């Protein structure tokens, strides 16, 4: 009798492990999604949000947003490998300095408002718990992810204070290559809901942080050539705040 029960248990275990990964054997999904969070630090592309702004003392309510697309594949009953792409457009503040033209030992100061735009690419490893009703890609999940975002900056507004008070000669070039690549590590937790055996709905929360901090002391940089370092630091800080915490919603299709 015990031998029979042992054989039956082994057969059930083998049958469970032999099942095809994926909900009803469907392993692949495509899911448009959007992430959003109130902008507490630094302005959005429309110069909104809490905290520091361009040209105004107090900003209105604004949101960091990131629309995107996720492609997922159930590699087992417990795990999904997902690839992500998202679009980022946000605002950035920068104060640059240049030597005054025609006047020695004087400096021009430039308050700049940038738009940072670019695509963010990511890879994610999702885990599901069968003991809690999870069957990849259905149910509650946790995920680790790595993202990279090559960003480009464009000046959309500028105010220059001339050290000499004479603007007739203009100012020296800013000397900024407005490109920056932002890396981040992230953790996501949420739930996939399957409707009609084909539709995928998701609600999740995502936390991202840069793997390396950039430390910049403005007191040590006073020349035109240091504007590039100023840009890098400002872009790093803005991107870190933009994607640090996001609430996400997605709706897609399961194959």
User: Based on DSSP secondary structure assignment, what is the total number of beta strands?
Assistant: 8
Order of helices and strands: HEEEEEEEHE
Biggest β-sheet strands, sense, barrel = 8 strands, antiparallel, barrel
Please state the structural category. mainly beta
Rounded radius of gyration (Å): 25 Å
Helix share of residues? 10-25%
Mean pLDDT metric: 87
Spatial strand order of the main sheet: 1-2-3-4-5-6-7-8
In terms of DSSP E residues, the strand content is: over 45%
In terms of per-residue confidence, which ranges show pLDDT below 50 for 5 or more consecutive residues?
A: 2-18, 218-224
The span between the termini is: 43 Å
Q: Supply the number of helical segments.
A: 2
Described by the principal axes of the CA atoms, the overall outline is elongated
Give the assembly state of these chains: single chain
Descriptive account of the structure:
The structure is a single chain. The protein has 255 residues and is mainly beta. It is built from 2 helices and 8 strands, in the order H-E-E-E-E-E-E-E-H-E. Strands 1-2-3-4-5-6-7-8 form an 8-stranded antiparallel barrel. The longest helix is centred in the N-terminal third of the chain and has 17 residues, at 2-18. It is elongated, with a radius of gyration of 25 Å.
Keywords:
single chain, 255 residues, mainly beta, eight-stranded antiparallel beta barrel, 2 helices, 8 strands, elongated
């Amino acid at each position: 009798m015990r031998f029979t029960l042992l054989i039956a248990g082994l057969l059930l275990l083998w049958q469970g492990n032999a099942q095809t990964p994926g909900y009803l054997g469907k392993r692949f999904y495509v899911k448009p999604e959007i992430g959003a969070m109130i902008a507490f630090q630094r302005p959005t592309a429309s110069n909104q949000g809490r905290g520091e702004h361009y040209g105004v003392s107090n900003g209105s309510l604004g949101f960091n947003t990131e629309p995107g697309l996720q492609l997922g594949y159930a590699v087992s009953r417990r795990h999904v490998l997902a690839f992500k792409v998202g679009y980022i457009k946000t605002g950035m503040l920068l104060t640059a300095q240049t030597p005054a033209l025609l006047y020695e030992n004087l400096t021009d100061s430039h308050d700049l408002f940038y738009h940072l735009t670019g695509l963010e690419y990511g890879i994610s490893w999702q885990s599901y718990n069968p003991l809690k009703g999870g069957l990849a890609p259905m149910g509650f999940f946790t995920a680790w992810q790595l993202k990279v975002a090559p960003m480009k900056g464009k000046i959309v507004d500028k105010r220059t204070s001339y050290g000499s008070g004479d603007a007739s000669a203009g100012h020296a070039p800013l000397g900024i290559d407005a490109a920056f690549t932002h890396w981040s590590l992230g953790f996501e937790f949420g739930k996939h809901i399957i409707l009609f055996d084909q539709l995928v709905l998701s609600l999740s929360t995502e936390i991202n942080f840069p793997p390396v901090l950039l430390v910049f002391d403005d007191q040590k940089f006073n020349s035109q050539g240091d504007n590039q370092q100023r840009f890098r630091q400002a872009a790093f800080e803005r991107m870190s705040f933009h994607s640090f915490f996001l609430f996400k919603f997605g709706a897609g299709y399961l194959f």
